[in-house]
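call fold(seq) -> tokens
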Amino acid sequence: MLRIRLAQPADVPVIATMIRELATYEHATLEAKADDAALSAALFGEHPHVFCHVGELDGRIEAMALWFLSFSTWLGNSGLYLEDLYVREPVRGHGLGGALMRELARICVEQGYSRFEWSVLDWNAPTIAFYRSIGAVSMDEWTRFRLSEDALVTFASS
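ret:
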């Protein structure tokens, strides 16, 4: 039986494990540094700023969608930004990814959010095909930039 639900504090260890599994899949194992304490604080601390839904198959957590709110100055309202969607390899194709995406889309509609956005690696053809199959369109004219680690510290102190 497939079930989508909001993550609970007891789910943090499995969420952390799936984040590491996703990092391995994306060839970025060394970049996945978040530990259980950091995830607990972000998801369930005094001021949560990230949210997570999990997908269960026969009572076992097999997928997760970690997201946060964004804001469009042009539209003047919030959107939902999907940071990570992950379905464990043995259960891919069982509908968990689609069910998680549908739940987040439902939240957007219910809350009046104007956008549901995410990024995907350009080499991840199966995932890109899945996103296109649900009606998502790529924003190819936009290039994502990032400041992090030493570059962030250097620029902040300049």
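The beta strands are 2-6, 51-57, 60-72, 77-87, 116-118.
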